[in-house]
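hey so i finally got around to running both of the ones u sent me last week. sorry it took forever, my laptop kept dying halfway thru and i had to restart like 3 times lol. anyway pasting them below in the order u listed, first the sequence line then the structure token line for each. didnt double check formatting much so if smth looks off just lmk and ill redo it

first one:
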Amino acid sequence: MMGTISPVVYRRSQYGHSGWRIAAVAYIAAGVFGAVALGILLGSSGSLLSTQLREYGHLALGVLAIVYSLHELRFIALPHPERKRQVPEQWRRRFHPFLTAGLYGLLLGMGFTTHIPTASYYFVALTAALSGKPLIGAFVFGLFGMARSTLLWPSVARFAEPHQVQLLINYMALTVPIVRQVNGFVLAMLGSFIVFTYLVNI
């Protein structure tokens, strides 16, 4: 994604540096929109569940967060359902650059349509669904979409040469184990808090 929507791609085109800004805004706006739309859908779906089922669901959410923290920390291996492919590369040749940026942002904002790097995505999705409220679902998933899409801007905004983008991509690949460890600790703490709160309120 960083190699597709960056100043490097637009620097010698008819759009110039302003084209990069338009593409980045389209990407971020579509990413947030896709996340909010999915959050509303999940929150609406959760509203169909009974109050008792949602309460048990919160307990299950806490337990799953703890269990999947062990998966993230590489103590155990658990199913990690996802779509292995990323966004369609051919869209770059088929559509206008700004439309392509928006479509990429939309898919990545929703999350489930592309590769899911960490198990925290499922935690966010279940939280939105178990809220049973479309607005809460939109807020929770909207934050996810914003956090995921806005990382693009500070990451590549100053890059002027293709090799700089590739160096960043290589660097980010090296940080994946660290990100997963941090994610594992966060899931463990949140899961423990949810289970503890549930047990105290019984």
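and the second one:
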Amino acid sequence: MKRTIAISVIFTLALMSSAAFAADMIGRHNLPNNRGVVTVKEIVGNKMSLDIIYAPVKGNLVVLTDVYADYDSRTQKAVYSEDRFCTDALKLTFQNNGRVVINEAACAVF
């Protein structure tokens, strides 16, 4: 009985802490070298609603509005996919200093 209560308390605390980190993620995040901005609108479960505007090193300006990404609150990483052939078009890593690092897959066509 005590073990069940302890497990449920730990599980509840884990959910509360992940919800607190999710609230910190909502807002505007800058890309390194002033290459763009990522605006997180909402996080529900493991889905993140966001807008992305950035200029890759080679290529045209990329503007993605009202897109969804799979978000992992433990690692603070999100993955945006365009279609089933490019399941990891953009990998976003949220840093503690308010910045986001974007890694674009070779299969991404923007």
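quick thing i noticed on the 2nd:
The CA atoms of residues 43 and 60 lie 28 Å apart.
anyway thats it, ttyl
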